[in-house]
Write a structure and sequence with these properties.
alpha+beta; eight-stranded mixed beta sheet; five-stranded mixed beta sheet; homodimer; elongated; 458 residues; BirA Bifunctional Protein, domain 2; Rossmann fold; 3 domains
Chain lengths: 458, 458
């Protein structure tokens, strides 16, 4: 019984056209990372389970793909745990390795492991696939590419400027207009929580706030009250979230509202510096906003928080984000390394470029010339000419066998090969070859000594 | 308790220098594949277990990394199988997916799955990592890159020529001289087995033959006798394996020895054609030989068999190989697709290039210029100049904070950044900047309007 050829849900095969487009996007990212002084690293597909587990919360742990131990080691399976429904403990007993779930934890592990060889501040980028046992759905895959850039080992705000300039440069190079970069600051969020009288409930507060886009102010208020915040406390939030004006105006108003919260004023000061400097320096492509509801990964971020939104014309939401953190590699024993990191949502950006038709034409490298196979007589000359063209870097092929011309021409047609060369007995007798332009259909006879490469343009 | 930062045995982290070298090798391979009309495909990291199992023999099956099912699915664990020591059956009960073990089976699956979209003859290449639960040792990894090129859908010998020419071109581009390409043919091996009176024991015969290099003729004879071959039968082998002369002379002698075995004569005829044509066309870099002991993957190959040996000056053995096959995708229900495939031993070739110092200098993309951070005064100008340089495609950085110059210069030194620019209060007052050449140690003052990029060469 033959096996039905198929791939696991949530994974993809990539054809030559897919790969050419994906490489184009990777290349734009790589070039810019390197222009900004970031250097690439790559980490293994699987890490030790203890490196990964406990870093992404319970839900994250469940979504990590684990590798079953090989050979005799599976005999250590904890059957009791299985019987008791303790699936995590059972999994622990039969696995030692797991697939990379993101690039942040492997990077933290890398920095701690090679701390004595690394030159700090360390600027690294990493473009590699990650794997998550998420339920596959449209646009969400179990295997997808992440793309991160981090600078670790310095607290200077110049780095906040640089990561925003980097976003601007990449989207400018991709000719993707309308991208919106939104900033917030952990210290401002902490000030807001304090201002409404809930300094200890920062996380619950921001989780609710984060939903403003979806459920509106009333929804956020309701959620906060459901979570035990007092009604009069919640009422204080409305005027803050309704601030109007551009970023600078919003920050000016916030400064008055949060005047009694020195930590918040620090955050406002930092964002002010960032906005003012970027205004002076000028951004080419992206627009910049303050967004007080922005809280992505707040457990982790300690300073500026950034999120990148797709142009409004496409329904995609976030296509990148990041922020300032203070304890990247603490769990690996490396303390006091502040850093800043951003990521690009590779697959989402890919889909947008596709939707907006922004991939350059002609990025797929196609065979430029097909030698028809005319039989023994002309074969030696054809193979020799073919080798010379390849030597010169031109992509060329010979049809492998002397099939009917119709079949051979159809092969050229289907593979979109623009030129076909014919050198059979007749041509050999006359000392010529025939070149057919597959686009126009014209064909022309040339003396044998004509340099073929010079003829291959439309 | 911090976790000790480390990676699983048999895996590797790659630094910027590693990656630059690996990309150089990949790029040479890619360019040549594409010049030869091969198009890239990529397949998922994991496949369905039923796609992979049973394709690599029992030993292979044991070396496949399987992914533990997520969530509730592990409850289906076959405890009885575990208790009975049936580890394969236990693994089957808790896994549905497994990591790619090679590129051949995923390619076969791909061809069968997309047979209606693919234009045949289909020329594909694939450069991707694979994973094997082999015991890690020096130069053998659990995660390593494979690199395959196949042409499927035609039986013409022109393809045998092409894959050898491709080997020649790649090693020529890599400037790796002394590579030896050895050819054999399944039909010749079958003829030899028949000639010594053991036509039904072809595999056992070739497995013994394959060890000639290591154990010598006497060792091979002993092994054959141990396996039940008759002594007088084995004695016939000696003169055949002792054939002398160049490839053509060996084939001529073989033709006499195997004159009564028409199938073997076909194989000899094919190799003769290949040798003669390649002699006419000329190979630039590799030498070509007949090697009657060559039997790699004989279960699979049906025509020419090829193996590539590293130059004698390095102890590395095989660095590539392949051959003609007739039933790539039969197990996926696609019959009668003959093809030819070759592979390049990526990691071994990498080690050889390293050992022979064949990687070009300056392939690591380094930051070309570091702006020293001199404090607030000059910062705006520096950031602006920095952005302009990056815009022009130059890799440049500013040290993030106003650390001591010694520290900043040390950063440039350690990162091998060749130029450093200083623009502080003093320079600002004079309308100049200072450029320091980190290699020579010289520094020079330039008017502010000097285009910086024009100064950055030694």
């Amino acid at each position: 019984m033959p096996i039905k050829p198929s791939i696991p849900k949530g994974t993809r095969d990539f054809s030559a056209t897919d790969i050419a487009k994906r490489n184009f996007l990777k290349q734009v990212l790589r070039q810019n990372f390197e222009a900004y002084g970031f250097e690439p690293i790559e980490t293994p597909t699987f890490e030790r389970t203890e490196t990964l587990l406990g870093k992404y919360g319970d839900e994250g742990d469940r979504l990590i793909f684990r590798i079953l131990n090989s050979g005799e080691k599976v005999k250590k399976a904890n059957i009791d745990a299985l019987a008791a429904g303790k699936l995590g403990a059972f999994a622990d007993s039969v696995t030692e390795k797991a697939l990379r779930y993101d690039l942040t934890v492997p990077f933290a592990r890398y920095v701690a492991q090679y701390q004595n060889d690394i030159v700090f501040p360390f600027r690294r980028y990493q473009i590699q696939p990650v794997w998550r046992a998420d339920r596959p759905q449209h646009g969400r895959f179990q295997e997808f590419v992440q793309c991160d850039a981090d600078i670790i080992g310095d607290r200077s705000l110049v780095q906040e400027l640089e990561v925003i300039q980097l976003y601007d440069k990449v989207f400018s190079d991709l000719k993707l207009t309308g991208v919106n970069v939104r900033l917030n600051h952990r210290k401002i969020l902490a000030g807001l929580a304090a201002a409404i009288g809930a300094p200890d409930q920062l996380i619950a507060f921001t989780v609710a706030l984060d939903k403003l886009d979806k459920i509106g102010i009333e929804g956020v208020e309701k959620e906060l009250i459901d979570q035990g915040f007092a009604t009069d406390v919640v009422a204080k939030l409305n005027p803050i979230l309704s601030l109007e004006g551009n970023a600078e105006e919003k920050l000016d108003q916030l400064k008055l509202i949060l005047a009694d919260h020195p930590e918040a004023l620090e955050g406002i000061e930092e964002l002010n510096y960032i906005f003012k400097t970027l205004q002076k320096q000028g951004l080419q492509c992206v627009s910049l906003d303050v967004d007080l509801t922005l809280a992505r990964g707040l457990n982790y971020y300690t300073g500026m928080i950034v999120e990148v939104r797709a142009p409004k014309s496409v329904k995609m939401g976030s296509i990148g984000g990041g922020g300032r953190y203070d304890d990247l590699a603490g769990s690996f024993g490396l303390k006091d390394k502040s850093g800043i990191g951003i990521s690009f949502g590779f697959d989402r950006i890919f889909l947008i470029l596709e939707e907006l038709n922004l991939f350059p034409k002609e990025i797929v490298k196609r065979t430029q010339l097909l030698f028809l196979h005319t039989g023994e007589a002309g074969l030696d000359w054809c193979i020799n000419a073919l080798q010379n063209l390849r030597q010169a870097g031109l992509a060329a092929e010979i049809y492998p066998s002397a099939a009917k011309f119709k079949k051979q021409l159809n092969y050229a047609h289907q593979k979109q090969i623009p030129f076909v060369l014919i050198y059979g007995e007749e041509e050999q007798a006359q000392g010529v070859f025939v070149l057919k332009n597959m686009t126009s259909g014209h064909q022309k006879t040339h003396p044998l000594i004509t340099p073929i490469a010079s003829l291959l343009s439309n």
